[in-house]
Write a sequence for this structure.
């Protein structure tokens, strides 16, 4: 039997009848709006006594998580954005498990922006930080269990039996003693009239029949025939298309523009100056782009007009020794002074663009009495707030329609493209779709921070690592995005993966010097860990080399009190055959990292062919707590590895004259299929609370590859992308 | 006016002759399964077939497609029954899915000309199609599965 879980009194569970028949279940968490979420979002609620609770034209209540139709259909409304990570399947799996739904009848739908979908970890409706399953694990299961109980209660009442003599299976309530059965569809109306239970039983892991099974993704059929609607594909009646000319230099401003040539382009309707730049609005995108290219614009390039990579790294170097403490244990400086052997190294990583396959875009329809926004967004709350600010409309008049996202990786947690569309629709009085070109998307990103790192390690006379010092200098993401999260000069995202070095080093000192040179920075898949894992895990291999120890064995010996790290490390090493012979010219590199509460280790098998790094095979071990959908977990590991491999081997954004030098996939190259290693994923069996999946596979790959290159060449890699 | 035959249906479109086929498909004909990814023929998201050959519609002027057979993802099969589409479903290839129309169109063209592609053939044919989600391993598997199914079928 499952575990009895009392519904938290602060959780406000509402159930109502659906217009046209059926049952709606919403779970609303008033305690969640710590940050940002407006209290009036979705306030009409699902209270069936409230006139607004009648199902509106949007066909479902803002707070509804589950809709059971009289036709036996089970619709699960997903408040998280589907950007490839499979959340549109894994969230419904959580609900369907406890609801005892027939998985074949389950469909998923995107939620509007509404308070009910507030991510409890982030405090907004935002998909990021690998938090969807981790954050909604309890909510979704409780909502499902509540629905199940009410369906059982309705059946028991009809049969005149006690509810606890009934059981459920695949959309059916069964009374085993009498052999009676009723389908959920037939019970949905009556279930809506039952009292909402105060407590629900949640299943024990051994009772799961959906969670833990590699379920096919619900969105796959839409993604093989062109049917899936991405932001780029939104079409509205009377819609116009826009392209925006942006100041090439960060922080520059518009001085003046001449649109006479642009307006002569066939199909061009309007030229409008907006916050993002100068927009050309036309009948088609091609006309808008041609019009944009015909604009003559005079920009004030502002204070960054001369900024370049050298100036940026000079600022980092100047600041690196004066950082604030991110972690201090023992006395690293004194231990380094006394060390029998001291190692020192400088590590650098460049700015990186996200490179989502779908360029930035958004569609808006602003009218006097309301505003609709169709966006491939990770950030529904911020999207709604942005539209509210621009239109001046009350928040309940702003409807956010989340489309499929052609990649997110953190880029779509920003709302600059939303502001473009809302401003333009407001200005021209028609629905407007703005599409950024690939060049716009590459050159106006919020980049993964570049950093400069000075490291030192001390070994005692027996070759034991006794001191570790890591000084980081670089820009801060949180100082712009969540300024309150910056404490004592420390942006936690800048030091994650460094300050929490897992190895048992008695004297550890990690500092961070915040330097914001003017290049916008943002969340990039796995954020600080994406670079800090490279730096720490590569420097660790240098330590192992200096101590004359095997890098895997040294890790094991220093992770004795880190069972999760140790488990994935040993699993990856054994599956990869660490220490066993490899084909001639092939070398192994290993790395382990904790990110987003998950633990991941990877072993890369690498050779150097004609001066280039060739990655043949990657063996990955992941511990993400309860594995909800092993199919998507495996896919996310493959994906995170390719993402990190692109950064390790190719990724580099350069700044010159205050602007980004790269523009498109010809000069900002991504890994291609002919460079794809064989990836093998092993998932640690666990019944712990599930943890992150979208990002934790990225941090270990760059150091695993770089360490293999070090093993091959004897020359440490201290800079990305890797150059031989 | 340009005369086009898209997925077997004739269309007359009133566009400038230098307009890329991609934007005519998307904005004039509402066929949004073909994607804009780069605009310079380096990512493959816009791949369609022109008389059976895979082309990058983002750099193909609509005039070059006049009176030729254009096949888009919407026309590859009426019901997702093309062996490549079926293999894509079986191997669970798509993640975000944005590049997948282009991947599928390139793979379908490869198999039409090479019933039993080697790993090297697959890499060569598919290396022009970028996938930022990194579905490449599954793309390889799906192409092999489709090839096998086509032979058996």
């Amino acid at each position: 039997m499952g575990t009895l879980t009392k519904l938290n009194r602060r959780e406000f569970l509402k159930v109502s009848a659906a217009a046209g028949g059926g049952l709606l279940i919403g779970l609303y968490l008033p305690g969640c709006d710590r940050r940002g979420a407006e209290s009036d979002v979705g306030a009409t609620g699902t209270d069936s006594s409230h006139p607004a609770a009648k199902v509106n034209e949007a066909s479902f209540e803002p707070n509804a998580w589950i809709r059971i139709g009289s036709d036996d259909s089970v619709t699960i409304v997903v408040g998280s954005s589907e950007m490839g990570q499979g959340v549109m399947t894994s969230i419904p799996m959580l609900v369907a498990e406890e609801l005892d739904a027939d998985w074949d009848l389950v469909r998923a739908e995107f939620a509007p922006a509404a308070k009910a979908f507030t991510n409890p970890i982030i405090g907004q409706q935002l998909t990021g930080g690998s938090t969807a399953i981790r954050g909604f694990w309890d909510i979704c299961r409780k909502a499902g269990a509540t629905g199940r109980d009410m369906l059982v209660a309705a059946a028991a009442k009809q049969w005149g039996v006690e509810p606890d003599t009934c059981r459920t299976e695949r959309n059916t309530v069964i009374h085993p003693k009498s052999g009676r059965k009723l389908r959920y569809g037939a019970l949905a109306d009556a279930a809506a009239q039952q009292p909402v239970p105060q407590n629900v039983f949640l299943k024990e892991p051994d009772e799961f029949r959906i969670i833990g099974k590699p379920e096919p993704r619900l969105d796959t059929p839409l993604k093989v025939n062109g049917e899936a609607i991405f932001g780029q594909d939104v079409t509205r009646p009377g819609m116009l298309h826009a392209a925006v000319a942006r100041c090439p230099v960060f922080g520059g401003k518009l001085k003046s523009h001449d649109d006479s040539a642009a307006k002569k382009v066939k199909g061009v309707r309007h030229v409008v100056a907006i916050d993002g730049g100068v927009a050309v609005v036309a009948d088609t995108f091609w006309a808008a782009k041609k019009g944009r290219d015909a604009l003559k614009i005079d920009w004030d390039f502002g204070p960054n007009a001369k900024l370049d990579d050298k100036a940026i790294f000079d600022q980092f170097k100047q600041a690196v020794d004066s950082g604030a403490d991110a972690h201090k244990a023992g006395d690293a400086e004194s231990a380094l002074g006394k060390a029998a052997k001291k190692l020192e190294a400088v590590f650098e990583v460049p700015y990186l663009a996200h490179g989502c396959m779908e360029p930035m875009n958004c569609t808006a329809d602003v009218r006097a009495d309301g505003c609709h926004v169709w966006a491939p967004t990770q950030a529904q709350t911020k999207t709604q707030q942005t539209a509210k600010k621009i239109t001046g409309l009350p928040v309940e008049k702003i409807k956010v329609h989340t489309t499929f996202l052609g990649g997110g990786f953190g880029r779509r947690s920003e709302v600059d493209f939303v502001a473009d569309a809302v401003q333009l629709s407001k200005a021209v009085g028609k629905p407007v779709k703005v599409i950024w070109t690939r060049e716009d998307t590459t050159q106006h990103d919020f980049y993964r921070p570049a950093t400069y790192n000075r490291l030192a390690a001390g070994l005692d006379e027996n070759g034991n690592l006794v001191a570790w010092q890591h000084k980081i200098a670089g820009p801060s993401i949180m100082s712009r995005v969540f300024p309150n999260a910056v404490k004592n000069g420390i942006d936690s995202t800048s030091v994650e993966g460094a300050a929490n070095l897992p190895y048992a080093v008695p004297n550890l000192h990690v500092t961070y010097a915040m330097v914001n040179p003017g290049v916008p920075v943002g969340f990039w898949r796995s954020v600080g860990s994406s670079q800090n894992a490279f730096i720490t895990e590569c420097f660790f291999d240098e330590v192992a080399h200096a101590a004359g120890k095997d890098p895997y064995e040294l890790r094991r010996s220093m992770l004795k009190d880190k069972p999760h790290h140790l488990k994935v490390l040993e699993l990856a090493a054994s599956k990869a055959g660490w220490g066993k012979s490899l084909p001639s010219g092939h070398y192994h590199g290993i790395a382990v990292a904790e990110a987003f509460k998950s633990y991941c280790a990877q072993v890369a098998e690498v050779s150097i062919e004609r001066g280039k790094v060739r990655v043949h095979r990657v063996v990955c071990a992941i511990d993400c707590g309860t594995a909800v959908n092993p199919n998507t977990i495996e896919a996310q590991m493959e994906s995170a590895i390719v993402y990190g491999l692109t950064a390790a081997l190719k990724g580099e954004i350069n700044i010159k004259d205050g602007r980004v030098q790269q523009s498109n996939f010809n000069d900002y190259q991504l890994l291609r299929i002919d460079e794809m290693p064989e990836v093998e994923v092993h998932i640690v069996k666990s019944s712990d609370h599930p943890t992150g999946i979208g990002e934790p596979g990225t941090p270990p790959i760059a150091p695993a590859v770089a360490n293999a290159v070090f093993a091959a060449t004897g020359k440490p890699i201290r800079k990305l992308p890797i150059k031989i | 006016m340009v005369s086009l035959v898209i997925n077997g249906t004739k269309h007359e479109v009133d566009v400038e002759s230098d307009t890329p086929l991609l934007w005519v498909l998307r904005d004039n004909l509402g066929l949004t399964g073909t994607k804009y990814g780069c605009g310079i023929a380096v990512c493959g998201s816009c791949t369609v077939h022109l008389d059976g050959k895979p082309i990058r519609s983002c750099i193909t002027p609509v005039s070059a497609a006049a009176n030729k057979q254009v096949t888009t993802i919407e026309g590859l099969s009426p019901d997702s029954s093309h062996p490549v589409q079926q293999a894509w479903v079986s191997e669970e290839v798509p993640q975000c899915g944005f590049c997948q129309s282009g991947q599928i169109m390139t793979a379908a063209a490869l198999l039409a000309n090479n019933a039993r592609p080697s790993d090297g053939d697959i890499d060569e044919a598919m290396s022009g199609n970028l996938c930022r989600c990194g579905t490449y391993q599954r793309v390889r598997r799906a192409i092999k599965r489709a090839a096998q199914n086509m032979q058996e079928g």
